[in-house]
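Morning!

This is the sequence you dropped in the shared folder:
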Amino acid sequence: MTTLTNALLPYQLAWPELFLALGCLVLLLVGAFSAPAVAATRVRYGAIAVLLGVLVLLAALPTATLIGASGFMKTAFEPLFQTSMLTQIGKAILVLLTLAWLGLTGPYWRLQKHDTFEFPLLALLSLLGMMVWLSAADFLTFYVGLELMSFCLYIMCAYQRDEPTSTEAGLKYFVLGAMASGLLLYGISLLYGAVGSTNFKAVALTVLTQPEAILPQLALGLVLVAMLFKLAVVPFHTWVGDVYTGAPTVVTAFLGSIAKLAVVLVSVRLVAEIFFTAGMPWRDLLLGLGLLSLVVGSLLALPQQNLKRLLAYSAIGQVGFILLGLGVFNSIGLQAVWFYAVTYAVASLGLLAWLSGLRHKDQAVVELHDLAGLARQHPWQGGALLVLLFSVAGLPPLVGFFAKFNVFVALVQAGHVVIAAVAVVLATLSAAYVLKILKALFLNQVEARPGLLPLGYAGWVLGGAAAFTLVFGLWPQPLYDLAILVISVSY
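The structure's back. Tokens below.
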């Protein structure tokens, strides 16, 4: 036993990823050799057990390895993989959200008569990609993690292959995602040609010591384009409406909360470790695209009648605030972004989980008019939705207000008073489409819909997200202290 422990010790920081990869292989065999009637259920419960094991391994990592960005793998993975407080806490949150999300998949697919064991495996593999991506210390690891995450998402979007909209969503996401990946690869190749290495530290050192060099800056621009595509930032947002609308709703929930959080956390690392040293033009670009996303996202969301498309376009506006925080180019901005991303991921999961479970006569509810009077028929749902929607709009005393407030404070302290003032005005646009949903829920005429109820577990996720939003709205300090700890210890 001691020999085995010593053999595994060099890989200690990657134990959670290795355990998750091994768990996926085992669950694949379980699904393949189980009877079709029980395969999906066994794999789903097995996936929950694997994720709980990953959480234990994340918690078991020695604290000393997480202090500062010096927690590098010094042996087999050097210098491809690193851990810090940011990566480990981020992974833990991603795993917890995936655990909450997995419970939605069984009832959803059973109702669709398409409950197969491959779907939870795709989600676990996508999560594995996110975890590797988040710990990347080199653009080679960065690319491998990103593509593992993305390919699984493409398949998940097209998973309901008998539905033309699902197939279309998967195809569009794949084609446009392949273009973004091509630009990323081209940028990585240019970086290697200019720097002689694809390691983050080597790239950062080059752009710091040679700020006038054009080729590294051009390469970083291509890398940034790929990240902006994944974030659905204007003008790289054209895929998001069709993909969110056409994909199965449980997949939309995964995309809009878990995958989005992973992209934001990786963006925090890139900005902190590379773009901080690359110069002010990148700061100005992020601030400008943040304001543009605020405007376009809110304006596109306003006329929408399809709930999934409305939430997709509203997410563009939310990403605008994240870009403003990143564009501050200091630790206060990064703390605000971390706080914002976590709270928005929880709210988004709650809203989309509720939508995935909402049925009327065995038909999915996706149009705004289908919500007429729902809050008066089912008051607890209406109260939970009121909390989440007001939080997304940034109204006090909910946690979404403090998320936006932290971004405004970071902008003002960095001297961007005008941008902060414009962002405050633009934030009111998000209140318009939120009020549109609330009007349908509370004020529109009640229609007789005895079947308009979320499936049981979806209601629990909705209630849990609303409780999180309300508790940390009334008492935000612990969450903000965690944001300060994560960023200050890591950078």
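Headline: Residues 99 and 148 are 19 Å apart (CA to CA).

More detail when I'm at my desk.
O.
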